[in-house]
Amino acid sequence: MRKLIYGMNVSLDGYIAAPGDDLGWSVPSDELFQFWSDRLRATELSLYGRKLWRTMSSHWPTADQRPDATPADVEFARRWRDMSKVVFSSTIDQVDWNTRLVTGDAVAEITRLKAEDGGPMDIGGATLAGAAMRAGLIDEYVLATAPVLVGGGTPFFTALDSWVNLELVESRTFPCGVILTRYETRRP
């Protein structure tokens, strides 16, 4: 059975995007970017909702070809393009870069993918992750909490139908002041 991991940069007040989908506050330091790049290397399959897919696919397919691309950008872009991805959307009609589109029941498909043998899956996007949270499918939460208050926007956590008990498995502070916490879901 695969492990499903939900991780993103998050503001101290709990948002993954400020009002207007502003992500300017969440540009990672070199160390934090390397952490996310290492996680990408360890991930077998990435699951995206529509909005996060549009953000990622507008940048990473050609990020390694930009004149100002750092070696870390080049490495991340190549990994991102090559890895298997699934996008869940009823409004997108085409995807590319080793990606499959699912227009039907996201929870049913994520449940099916989790039941397969294979490496870890990452899930990104508040709406998609929220559906997986409510269905009890997320095994690990990774929060890179930035020292900023954005006052509103897209929350990392969605409204839940019941409690989710977690166990802290890692915490560390990056030189930029971001605090990384990893929690595993405690199952009965």
TrEMBL record:
<dbReference type="InterPro" id="IPR024072">
    <property type="entry name" value="DHFR-like_dom_sf"/>
</dbReference>
<dbReference type="InterPro" id="IPR002734">
    <property type="entry name" value="RibDG_C"/>
</dbReference>
<protein>
    <submittedName>
        <fullName>Dihydrofolate reductase family protein</fullName>
    </submittedName>
</protein>
<dbReference type="InterPro" id="IPR050765">
    <property type="entry name" value="Riboflavin_Biosynth_HTPR"/>
</dbReference>
<feature type="domain" description="Bacterial bifunctional deaminase-reductase C-terminal">
    <location>
        <begin position="2"/>
        <end position="180"/>
    </location>
</feature>
<dbReference type="Pfam" id="PF01872">
    <property type="entry name" value="RibD_C"/>
</dbReference>
